[in-house]
């Protein structure tokens, strides 16, 4: 049975607080609630986080500036990691898109964001191979690239969600586990795919843009004009397709075979109607979420 795709539009901000340090706006992020970390675990996480950021920066990905980071005591004798980062004003990608006052403005803003995110995604070198291909989809530096995890700052894209720290184990495509006593928190189901598979990342990224376009259109015009919503989604998908095609044409990290598959995925979004699709993004992403969902319900 088909399920509605659960895109994370909510931004889990329970552990996020915006404040001020020396007249500068900062955002405080507190991690590790219910992870059961000892003081030593929390120190290890802080260490992993620092090397992860260094890895991202080393391949040219800009990350938010950490003002300070420390281990703090939490409830039930657990320890948490708290970091304060520079706060970027007005840089929220989805908020900017939803604020568009016309179709043309939406499409232009979306185009700018798609260029930046596509360039970032296909600048990441693949793990242990020179090129990504249909048999080798793995990112060397796993990123959780989706619009809610990045902000715009003076026209540049800054990755703000650098937690949880993710690393590939040496010589394998398995993610290093987080420290702590709980197995299910050390690694989440399908973490490898969700953060390390170039095809998944591309599919989900473009799924977000199509989804937010659908929402924006419904906010402007109501939910009844299905044909008009479809044509809007189609127009956006064509923009995505053009950007993806030109980025891939210049890329020396993606084989022609994989480029064709990625382009076919986007074609699929372009022709999908909201009337027949019970989801907002591409099929590839949908099917992964569904199998993950089955794994989860199988476990309980
Ligand atoms: N440095 C920052 N500047 C501005 N907004 C931020 C910053 N960091 C996070 N945010 C906002 O807070 C949201 C949640 O932060 P994030 O680091 O992604 O944590 P999580 O996804 O674990 O809740 C983001 O989607 C973004 O909208
Ligand atoms: Mg996030």
Q: Provide the succession of SSEs.
A: EEHEEHHEEHHHHHH
Strand order of the largest sheet: 1-2-4-3
Query: What is the β-strand count?
Result: 6
Low-confidence stretches: 1-5
* Average pLDDT level: 87
Terminal CA distance reads 19 Å
By helix and strand content, what is the structural category? alpha+beta
Shape: globular
Any idea what the radius of gyration is?
20 Å
Strand portion, in percent? 5-15%
Bound molecules: adenosine-5'-diphosphate, magnesium ion
Largest β-sheet summary:
4 strands, antiparallel
Count of helical stretches: 9
Query: What percent of residues adopt helix (DSSP H or I)?
Result: 40-55%
For the structure shown, list the relevant keywords:
9 helices, binds adenosine-5'-diphosphate, alpha+beta, 300 residues, 46% helix, disordered N terminus, binds magnesium ion, single chain, two-stranded antiparallel sheet, 4-stranded antiparallel sheet
Describe how the helices and strands are arranged.
Layout: E1 16-21, E2 24-31, H1 39-58, E3 66-73, E4 79-86, H2 93-98, H3 103-121, E5 150-153, E6 156-159, H4 183-186, H5 191-196, H6 198-221, H7 226-250, H8 256-271, H9 283-299
Antiparallel strand pairs: 1-2, 2-4, 3-4, 5-6
The protein binds adenosine-5'-diphosphate and magnesium ion.
């Amino acid at each position: 049975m088909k399920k509605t795709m659960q895109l994370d539009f909510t931004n889990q901000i329970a552990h996020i607080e915006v404040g001020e340090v020396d007249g500068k706006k900062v955002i405080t992020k507190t991690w590790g609630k219910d992870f059961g970390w000892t003081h030593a675990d929390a120190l290890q996480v802080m260490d992993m986080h620092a090397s992860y950021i260094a890895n991202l920066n080393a391949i040219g990905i800009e990350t938010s500036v950490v003002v300070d980071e420390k281990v703090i005591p939490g409830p039930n004798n657990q320890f948490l990691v708290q970091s304060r980062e520079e706060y970027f004003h007005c840089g929220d990608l989805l908020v900017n898109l939803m604020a568009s006052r016309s179709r043309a403005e939406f499409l232009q803003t979306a185009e700018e964001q798609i260029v930046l995110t596509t360039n970032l995604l296909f600048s990441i070198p693949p793990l242990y191979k020179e090129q990504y291909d249909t048999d080798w989809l793995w990112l060397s530096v796993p990123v959780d690239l989706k619009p809610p995890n990045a902000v715009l700052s003076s026209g540049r894209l800054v990755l703000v969600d650098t937690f949880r720290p993710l690393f590939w184990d040496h010589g394998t495509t398995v993610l290093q586990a987080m420290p702590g006593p709980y197995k299910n928190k050390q690694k989440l189901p399908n973490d490898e795919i969700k953060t390390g598979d170039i095809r998944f990342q591309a599919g989900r990224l473009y799924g977000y843009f199509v989804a937010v376009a659908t929402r924006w259109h419904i906010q402007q015009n109501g939910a009844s004009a299905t044909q008009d919503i479809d044509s809007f989604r189609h127009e956006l998908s064509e923009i995505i397709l053009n950007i993806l095609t030109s980025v891939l044409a210049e890329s020396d990290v993606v084989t022609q075979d994989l480029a064709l598959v990625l382009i076919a995925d986007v074609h699929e979004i372009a022709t999908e109607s909201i009337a027949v699709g019970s989801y907002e993004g591409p099929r590839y992403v949908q099917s992964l979420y569904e199998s993950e969902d089955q794994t989860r319900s199988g476990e309980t």
